[in-house]
Amino acid sequence: MEANGRDNSIIIIGAGFAGLSAGIYAQMNGYKTQIFEMHNKPGGLCTSWKRNGFIIDGCIHWLVGSAPGSAMNDYWKEVGIVQGREFVYSDEYMRYEGPEGRKIIFYSDVDRLEKELLDLSPKDREPILEFTNGIRFALNFDQPSSDTPFLKKIGNSIRVMYTFITNGKQFKKWGKTTPQEFTARLSDPMLKDAINELWLPDFSMLFMLFTFAYLHKKNAGYPLGGSMPMSRALEARYTALGGVINYDKKVEKILTENYKATGIRLSDGSEFHASRVVSAADGYNTIYKMLDDKYADARTHEPYEKWATFPSLIFAGFGVNRSFDDEPETVSGFSYQLEKPTVVADATINRLSVHIYNQDKSLAPVGKTVMTVMLPSDYTYWKKLSEDKDAYNRKKEEVGKQIQELLEQRFPGISSLVEMINIATPMTFERYTGNWKGSFEGWLITPMNANVMMKPMSQTLPGLNDFYMCGQWVEPGGGLPTGVMSGRKLMKKICKEDGRKFTTSYK
Ligand SMILES: Cc1cc2nc3c(=O)[nH]c(=O)nc-3n(C[C@H](O)[C@H](O)[C@H](O)COP(=O)(O)OP(=O)(O)OC[C@H]3O[C@@H](n4cnc5c(N)ncnc54)[C@H](O)[C@@H]3O)c2cc1C
User: Fold this and answer.
1) Chunked in runs of 10, what are the mean pLDDT values of the chain (507 residues)?
2) Most CB within 10 Å of its CB: which of 66, 89, 152, 304?
């Protein structure tokens, strides 16, 4: 029993990366935890599914911190993700195929990228150099691993501090600039469109610069085997530390008494109690439904009323009887111009962005390959359609066939090689992970909320003790690294509350 009357029990809602990480760090620090997860497997959004012998990976493109030597890599070791895992570092982030045979290769290496862009559009030299130097600026900010020799660590801290002092304004400027604003300065229309398509048009440019910096350093690799083996590794680490996961258990309410969280009620009516409750589930459901909006002030509501989220998606998977060894391996795929604007479900598209998983043979039978297409699609459109199950299923089938026809424009004859089509919609994301409006990564960092990089969101709610949150809904920008860091940060906080020294370990 702690001095404040609590015992060391913690209930965690959700076995995504954040919930499992919170559980792992809690177990490492002597807490007794159990996770309640509504799905029958771990990982939340970090998942994959098998259809007709093909594995469709619903998440990982790159894992920041994949290479040894950075603090993030230490965290991955602590939670058991990187040990024994092989990473692929593709030379190309993305290919953009424009009209009249013109193309842009967005190389992972910043020097090659700079040359490619300058060769393409010499008249845009000034903004191009600003962009590539922005990437070089972002190279400075990797935190060193705990194994780094002391003097090297000090040297790194001084460099980071110096960069901040001398270039702090740059940090702020990129944080407040969207691709749309940046590309307004470019004169080459294709380059303009391509940079806007690289990311979401209202996302902060800072995020893009950091991603390219990690790619350049070969510290953001694709893990062979994809998402699910990583989620299973987290699950194994958690249970090996004594944690308990209860699958197929949907939490409906968080129980409170005298302004303290005391436990949870499941959808089957059963109740479980603990000294603390952590929600690593979707923020909207946690605050507005599980807690009936009783513990939220204007600051808590603000993001849900004003901030932009990562869009919801149509996520199409294709199993193709072809190796695609003749196509380049890329981190996030390539995009090509369609013959004419085409309406797919609720949106009109001019281009199709396709990811060929030719870098990971384990996802398909020998000689065959998985391809995926991600298209932003409105949640409410699919929500309405889903009220009529037949209409919803018909639309999914239609969308699959339509995308196959669009693939035909770039790969003539591909239709006869397609052995599997699988369409996930925003409703699929919602059903399997509970994420608000089917969003795939929580809050976007935009100029409106860019200050969260300096002043993070709170992991607690006003007026409710013994309750905490972690995961992508309290870490704008989302992603797997932030999920793990969020669980780690939370357990550090809880240890501090209890006067315990926060300790970690890895095998
Ligand atoms: C297509 C796609 C591509 C991506 N690419 C990358 C990438 O390349 N690199 C990267 O780092 N990140 C990527 N991400 C983002 C990353 O997957 C997420 O940001 C991260 O997995 C979020 O983790 P989380 O634990 O915060 O949330 P979630 O994964 O959403 O976990 C929440 C968990 O809570 C459970 N839950 C919800 N409600 C309840 C309830 N009422 N009761 C019980 N359980 C509940 C859910 O089932 C889920 O398991 C991608 C995501 C997608 C979808």
Assistant:
1) 76 98 98 98 98 97 94 96 96 94 96 98 97 92 73 72 73 87 95 92 89 96 98 98 98 97 98 98 98 96 94 97 95 95 96 97 97 97 97 98 98 97 97 95 87 85 97 95 97 96 91
2) 66
DSSP 435-481: -GGG-SSSBPP-TTTGGGGTSPPPSS-TT-BTEEE-STTSSTT--HH
The whole-number pLDDT of residue 106 equals 98
- Yes or no: say if 252 and 290 are a contact pair by the CB < 8 Å rule: yes
**Pairing verdict, β 334-344 and 313-320:** unpaired
The residue whose CA has the least distance to atom 50 of ligand 1 is 59
Radius of gyration, alpha carbons of the chain:
23
- Pick the atom of ligand 1 nearest to 475's CA: 26
Q: Count how many Cα atoms sit within 13 Å of the Cα of residue 480 in the half-sphere of its side chain.
A: 30
For residue 260, give both structure tokens: 């303290």
Using a 6 Å cutoff on CB, does residue 281 contact ligand 1? Answer: yes
**Residue ranges per domain, the chain?**
9-43+229-308+444-497, 105-217, 313-433
Tell me the sheet residues that pair with 33: 10
Q: Which CATH architecture has domain 9-43+229-308+444-497?
A: 3-Layer(bba) Sandwich (3.50)
Ligand 1 pocket member 47 (CB < 6 A): no
Best residue among 210, 310, 441, 482 to mutate for probing ligand 1, ranked by most atoms within 8 Å of CB: 441
Strand order in the sheet with 220-223: 63-64, 220-223, 87-88
What pLDDT score was predicted for residue 105?
A: 98
- How far is residue 466's CA from residue 274's CA, in Å, rounded to a whole number? 9
Q: What is the spatial distance between Cα 360 and Cα 372, in angstroms, rounded to a whole number?
A: 13
pLDDT at 199: 84
Mutate to test the pocket of ligand 1, among 12, 46, 353, 489 (most ligand atoms within 8 A of CB): 46
Q: Is the CB of 42 under 6 A from ligand 1?
A: no
3-state secondary structure of 80: coil
Nearest atom, ligand 1, residue 290 CA: 41
Cα(496)–Cα(506) distance, rounded to whole angstroms?
Answer: 21
354 lines ligand 1 (CB under 6 A): no
From the CA of 14, give the closest atom in ligand 1.
Answer: 34
Ligand 1 contact via 277 beta carbon (within 6 Å): no
Helix (H, G, I), strand (E, B) or coil at 207: helix
Tokens 């944690």, residue located: 243
